[in-house]
Records
---
Amino acid sequence: MGDVFMHTYHRLPVTFTQGQGVWLVDDQGKRYLDFTAGIAVNCLGHGYPPLVKAVADQAAKLIHTSNYYHNSAALAFAEKLIAACAAQGMQKVFLANSGAEANEGACKIARKYSFKKYGAGRHRIVTLKGSFHGRTITTLSATGQERFHKDFGPFTEGFRFTPPGDIDALDRALDPEVTAGFLVEPVQGESGVFPQTAAYMEAAARLCAERDILFMADEIQCGVGRTGAFLACENYGIRPDVVTLAKGLAGGIPIGAVLAGEKAAEVFAAGDHGSTFGGNPLAAAAGLAVLEVVTKPDFLQEIARKGARIEAALRSWNQSKIREIRSQGLMVGIDIDGDAAPVLEAGITRAQNGEAGLLILSAGPRTLRLLPPYVISDGEIDQGLDLLRRLTG
Ligand SMILES: *Cc1c(COP(=O)(O)O)cnc(C)c1O
């Protein structure tokens, strides 16, 4: 049974059939508190009524037409998205379907920007060690983690990794003779929730500006409100040249977006880039429903407040098994003394023993990662943390 899928995932032994808010229900009727939000995707939780309605209404009207034509859902969504990022200088957007595709688009923009202005040879894209940028061959090439590279070479040429936090190393890596772009997660997600320091982000933005290298923020996990600001770059006072978004942007419907500011907004010309599904009305309608909520300043403040509440609670535990806690908004990493995998499993077996279960993520072998939906209540935070304390104690 179940042997029809390629063996790409270590799935936990549970099948979910329903969700409401921060709760998921499995095929046995057991309940689980969801601190994963589908890996930062279901940012408004499960079954959020305005999102459900937007998707249902749009599906009934029009699901897809192709980019041969205009569509008003995509236009409304794109206008709202650009408005949400206008203070960070964003002017234009290309819509795709996933994070990897968004980063592919960003790399193409950096390469063409540089090629048009400086000619061939200035095509390097610098990324960080420990970064995660996707699973296509080029975004794997951009990903600074050996464990993803095994067996898949040869990779796309022109990527170079530099250690996070090391400004001198970055200065050397950003060789203006050969470098087109710098791609950075303001908060590294998959490798363990590592926020960049303000000094590093500022230095990187300055070096890129001085050398006419595009500063590209991969906000696929940390964007769309996750850190308490619509873009995590806002927390650093950085105006990037390019931003990529995906995961939470349509609340669970596949989507990706590449945004560009003044330097790069006009780089792509007709025929340079495209996507069959990109900007389809269904994803756009879902995205608009998400933006209507997550761009509100008081809603974003609540995300920051809830994140701080989680971090403060974790710090008050004084558990010997917890080595380090890092967070920005509702993106929390907890390094533990021991393997993360058994903690994830224990959160599920609890439910199967008749109590409420807890769903959490790992990020690397010894780091727990919490990415709860933004709509989580203080009571649900306390309940989830109480479960987590017992799982790690
Ligand atoms: C998830 C993620 C990606 C890849 O997104 P997919 O939709 O899985 O292709 C890229 N960058 C970051 C920072 C991510 O968290």
---
Amino acid sequence: MEYYSTNHQTRNVSLREAVVKGLAADRGLFMPERIPQLPKAFFKNIGNLSLQEISYAVANTLFGEDMDSQELKNIVYDTLNFDIPLVHVNGDIYSLELFHGPTAAFKDVGARFMARLLGYFTRRGGNSGMVNVLVATSGDTGSAVANGFLGVDGVRVFVLYPEGKVSKIQEAQFTTLGQNITALEVNGTFDDCQRLVKQAFLDDELNSKMSLSSANSINVARFLPQMFYYFYAYAQLQQRNQTDKDLVVAVPSGNFGNITAALIGKRMGLPIKRFIAANNRNDIFYNYLLTGNYEPKPSVTTIANAMDVGDPSNFARVLDLYGHSHERICAEISGCSYTDEQISDTLARCFKDNGYLLDPHGAVAYRALMEQLKQGETGVFVETAHPAKFKDTVESIIGESVTVPERLEKFMQGKKLTIKMPSGFTAFKKFLLSV
Ligand SMILES: *Cc1c(COP(=O)(O)O)cnc(C)c1O
């Protein structure tokens, strides 16, 4: 299968090229040239299949013709070596818990899959050199990517982060790993880190001497695997005989990668009736639904900060999927936008009423279902992070202490290893040429 660019100004590319390049030459986002269907029979007994079996079936439908099937199976099974349980919260509302991976956030799924796929293409490419992945992070992406790539042959990762500007637990998740992961502590801001990475990709000398890649969230290998768990949510509803009602999926959205994967899952045959894109005060998409105008704005800081995005990068994919029709988009996707106060209230109330502890991101989507779910519908929202990742915020809302899972605690015990870096490009380039 080939991949086209949403800007349509460049030729189609292979899966390999889409994964290695990340972004199309015309700055568009890659999309599969067609969306293959899973047979109806697959859904009849999906409740009997495991997360790994379902994910492999979906992955094989999408990527099967472009790679060795046993290798693909290994990649899928290795990526999803943790559970993604569906937990009943109240009434017709369920939480799909995406936080049981190594860094306790849903980005683990995409990052782990992409790392393994990139490793596969590198090894097979007859390219004896290493692929060097550069990633700038303000916290969460760095940890998911670093852990996703940890120990993957043929790939080295350089995480650039602003010194003193990420939380201790986040920092521990990418500075204590060692092996093929190097953390660069930049004397500057997140924007400086991002600038250094961008400049490296544009530097002819660097690119002629080493193979550079990004683990950006717009990469098809990070974005598409996020659909696997929506199929598994449906399977778990079937196990409970809860598939007679219409399924509504609510996704706390920032860059819209997670929800776009679900939209494609529906096109592949997954019986989802409609979607809710749940936003914090960064309401660019919600305003688009209301007005038909897309107006990016600088992001505002909220307590659900992984969704503080003022120009969602996957919006181009959403538009593309619906042929740029505002009407068709509104027919399938609704939205909402909540203030920090509404998010806090929801988190506190859900804990009090149901004994279920949400994180601030999941709370946005849960509230959306509480407000928008209709009779005859079952709602599934995705819990995108473990509440302990936002320990201080969550504890101050519920007035109780939150237990940190052992795997997060463990990072804190590791030894921090970083290389300090000034914010100018010269030093960074010199460093890269020396590794
Ligand atoms: C990244 C992230 C989101 C937003 O996901 P998108 O795919 O960018 O819409 C939501 N919640 C958490 C916890 C995240 O880390």
